[in-house]
Amino acid sequence: MDVILHAGRERSVLRRHPWILSGAVANVAPAAAAQPGAWVRVLSHGGEVLGFGYLSPASQLRVRLVAFGKDEPAEGWLAERIAVAVARRNDEPLLRDTDAVRLVNAEGDGLPGLVADRYGDVVVVKLMSAGMLARRESIANALCEATGAAAGYERPDAAAARREGMPTRQGVLWGELPSAPVPIREGRRCYRVDCVDGQKTGFYLDQRDARDLVERLADGRRMLDLFAYTGGFSVAAAVGGARSVTAVDSSQPALALAAEHLEGRLPADALRLVRQDAFGFVREDEGEYDLIVVDPPPLARNRGDVRRAARAYKDVTLHALRRASPGARLLAFSCSHHMGAELFRKVIFGASVDAARPLRVLAQLGQPVDHAVALDHPEGAYLTGFLLEA
Ligand code: SAH
């Protein structure tokens, strides 16, 4: 079936942007075939074939393009593209030290609406578009074949369900899920991942490079891990020789796993796990730290949230800086696409001025290779970090 665009709205497609918004669509024909996830051909107003993709009749994001130009991709392209994405990770020298990687990063791998993460022998999948939701079985087969993993598990995505007007589900896609959290390894760091109830698909794979950095910076330092989740950064600090670790998160199950991960890594009196609102904690805490990680959840989920998010980021950074020893290293992260690097830098600058603590930027950080962003889809960039010296 065909999706015909309004005059002039082919421009983004010609630049290979994979999204077609509902406002760009003049006509869908035949209308009766406009089922969620339908395979569509996209035409300019003048009738030129621009590309092919999946229809999301209920979503503002009306079509996700997977091929550009007039040639329709051959049958089996989806499985092939999944195999290519998996092979990229298998062949990637920068991912050699770990058995936990993002295998498919949606638009970054030419597969809008599909995310798949590997944790040891388990693949956790998120289907986030009507097109992908409608192809659950072939996706599961392709992932199973490409990875040889023992089990596949689907996690629902509430935002996608709302946007796409389609039910999402949670459950086994193939094989049998281990009953306990799945052990993974990253260099010298070990974790266990709760693929069923954990946040995202279970673990913040996107912070792997930053964990490497923390491990290398930690020796002899007193570390504060704000928004610690299951202790990704705390474990890195402990493995790197931190003198003490204080990890703060509001989630009890997350901290319970953090406690397991850190057991035996530090003397008991050098480890503090605090279940508290991190914004409140940094205001009240009187400790001094030489290495501070601030990694809050996405505070700006859309453009309208940015001002409020900026205030929250500034507030937590300001108070974190008051706890920083002279020469301390601070890693500050934003995982909101709408909080771009330039704005985030200004927010941190504001905190630095108010705290009267000049900062030097030692490095700017972003997403690791398995979360690569396609240049034609800048929206795929969401993670910004700064390594700062107080
Ligand atoms: N640094 C973690 C990921 C952090 S994700 C890692 O690398 O694994 C954000 C975390 O913030 C989540 O674990 C969530 O439970 C926690 N969180 C959300 N709001 C919070 C709040 N107000 N105070 C403390 N923790 C909060």
| Gyration radius, rounded | 22 Å
Query: How is the biggest beta sheet arranged?
Result: 7 strands, mixed
Proportion in helices: 25-40%
Identify the CATH architecture of the largest domain.
Answer: 3-Layer(aba) Sandwich
- Shape, please? globular
β-sheet strand percentage = 25-35%
**End-to-end C-alpha gap:** 59 Å
State the CATH class of the largest domain: Alpha Beta
Would you write up a description of this structure?
28% of the residues lie in helices and 29% in strands. It is built from 11 helices and 20 strands. Strands 16-15-14-17-18-20-19 form a 7-stranded mixed β-sheet, with helices on both faces. The longest helix is centred in the C-terminal third of the chain and has 17 residues, at 306-322. The mean pLDDT is 97. S-adenosyl-L-homocysteine binds next to helix 7 and helix 9.
Topology:
Blueprint: E1 2-5, H1 11-14, E2 19-21, E3 25-29, E4 39-43, E5 49-55, E6 61-68, H2 77-91, E7 100-105, E8 114-119, E9 122-127, H3 130-133, H4 136-147, E10 151-155, H5 158-164, E11 171-174, E12 182-186, E13 189-193, H6 208-217, E14 222-226, H7 232-239, E15 244-249, H8 252-262, E16 271-275, H9 278-284, E17 289-294, H10 306-322, E18 324-334, H11 341-354, E19 360-365, E20 384-389
